[in-house]
Every structure is written in C-alpha cells, then in structure tokens.
Amino acid sequence: xxxxxLRVERKKASALHAFLKExxxxxxxxxxxxxxxxxxxxxxxxSAKDRKIIKEKFAAIVVExxxxxxxxxxxxxxxxxxxxxxxxxxxLVGRAFDLVGNIAIVEIPNELKGNEKIIGTALLEAxxxxxxxCMKTGAHKGVFRAEPVKVIAGKKNLVATYTESGxxxxxxxxxxxxxxxxxxxxxxxxxxVKKGEVVAALFAxxxxxxxxxxxxxxxxxxxxxxxxxxxxxxMQENVKKNxxxxxxxxxxxxxxxxxxxxxxxxxxxxxxxLPKGAEEFLHEAFLCLKKxxxxxxFYGFAERSNLFEPAIRLIKSQAEKIGKxxxxxxxxxxxxxxxxxxxxxxxxxxx
Length: 351
Ligand SMILES: C[S@@+](CC[C@H](N)C(=O)[O-])C[C@H]1O[C@@H](n2cnc3c(N)ncnc32)[C@H](O)[C@@H]1O
What we know:
Strand content: 25-35%
Helix content: 25-40%
Oligomer: single chain
Radius of gyration: 22 Å
Low-confidence stretches: none
Number of helices: 11
CATH topology of the largest domain: Rossmann fold
Number of strands: 17
Bound molecules: S-adenosylmethionine
Shape: globular
Number of domains: 3
C-alpha cells in the first residue's frame, strides 16, 4: 500500500533525514528508497508547519510511494496489540507517543482502563531501546506545569536521560515540565542568537533552551530562571553534564523577584516559554532588556479564531506604558493544544 513520502534531491537527503528523525516524523519500519536523483523517505502525517519547513528548507516534495518493510523489522506496536486487544479496543489506542530518552509517555483513553499493562508491554516489545512506559494520569498542572504520569510497564524509573541537538538532559518526569516537541523551536531560536549576546532564559525548566543555546551559539551568557526546585536541580545537573557552566547561570526562584534584583537592563534577548500566563510577566521581560533594546520571544496559548491579535495588543500596550516601541518580527502557531486552541510564538524587537 502506498505511504505518505517525501521526495528530496540526493544532496539534501541526509539533512532532511536528520530533521525527520529529530521531529519523529520518519516511519522507521519502512526502508527509504532512491532513484538516480532523489531519495524518498516514508513519513507520518505532516502538519501544515512541517510541510512549510520541509518545502522551504529542504525543497522536498510530498508524494505517495510504496516502500519495502525493513528486513528483519519487528512487528509494530499495533501489530503486537492486534493479537491481544479486541478490534474495538485496538481502534482506541493511539499510535503517537512522546519519547523522552528511554521512557515513552502514552495517553490511554478511559475506555481502555484495565488494559494499561498490555499496552505498555506491547510498546516495550515494539521498541527495544525503551526501558519504561508510563501513561499520563492528568493534564499539565499548577505553576510548575508538570504532567502527572505513572509507570505501566518496564523499569520503575521516571528519571529520563534525553538527548537533543547534541545535548543530554536529565528530566524528572512527573515532577517537572518537559516537551521534546519544542526541539525544533529551540533550534529556530539558536539560529538567531549572535556572538556575545546575553540572554534571559526565563521559565527555564530543566534548561533545554539555555543549554541548547550554549552549545549551538556564540552567546556570552544565558541567565536561566526557574521556580520549581526539582527542575532547578535537574537543570544544574544538566549544565554540568553538558559542560556549559561558563555560559549558563542557573537562578533559582520567581521571575518576578529575580529579574528586578539581578537581570534589569542586562540582556539582549529574552525567552518567555510560559504559554499559560506569560502576559503577566511582560513587565519583567521588558525590564531585562538593555537600554538600547533587544528581542523578546513570547509564547502563549491562543484561540484559533484569533491567534495573534490579543497577545500583540497586550505587548504593544505594555511597551507604550514604558515609552518603548515594538516591532513584530515573526509570529507562528507552534503546535495544536486542543481543537480550539494552539500554542503560539511571537518574536518582537523593542527599541
Ligand atoms: C512551560 S514550562 C517551560 C520549561 C522549559 N523552558 C522547557 O521548554 O522545557 C514553564 C516553566 O516555568 C516555570 N515557572 C512558572 N512560573 C514561574 C515563575 N514565576 N518564575 C520562574 N519560573 C516559573 C515552571 O516551573 C516551568 O518549569
């Protein structure tokens, strides 16, 4: 049966392959194919944003193609489950899961209650590198935005070791916020940071933004501010693991208190990855910037019917209050959050 595929010129194939692997878009069970000029990669469903990046960055074209199964490839998760669950139950099992290093996080609908172990074990059998499967037991909650999870199969361990963009992270799942889905966004920011910049990495979590920037850019320093003590501990460990102690200073505490005391007027760039409630910290973000101005990356959740206007209005009114000018440089939907809402990012300059 034909699969969704990307056709790319040979010279761009390895870069596209790396991107697809990092974004978890590659269908690993199928063998990529090639002809004289092109390579074809089997891919999962692509969002409009993925399609745009793939077209603009790699000049790849979406096609349909029949691929061979990789020789010796194991049964897929769904194939294993098909012998263990009824057809009706199987249809309720999602194919997607988040992978944080050696730990998979799955969402299991209420209708499948009682089948958690069967599902977790099948996932372990299908992906031999996995050590633990856990399930979400609620939504991201509280100020720390941690997602509650529990182990359903494999090792009873919730401390993941995750690798992204050449950096390695310890992530205490269930106690801290972490999303591997923001990997491409971290790289997007890293392409903008210039030599010598000072960055305020607010709401830093376990440190993926400042640590990727430390590895990928020639910034002089990132100040990483985080309130959750468990995330701060993970971040301190991650700074050590990645040997970026000279470039990343971890500041434990509340952005509202730390910025006025330690970061006022010091930074060229501010990251605000706090989608729920970042607007309440715009004052602190502006305060971080040097007198001559700089750039702020604002993240938020927004209604699909009006994605950017409410946030832009707030940003402009905050700037007016302190006599600054803002220019919107970039705005984009990052990922879908619910049928009605999406996570957005807005980059703007302040002068
Ligand atoms: C959505 S998470 C982003 C974490 C990280 N930047 C990432 O991408 O993985 C937001 C983080 O902000 C932290 N946080 C929330 N309110 C805060 C505050 N007032 N001061 C400092 N950190 C805060 C939370 O504990 C959480 O780790």
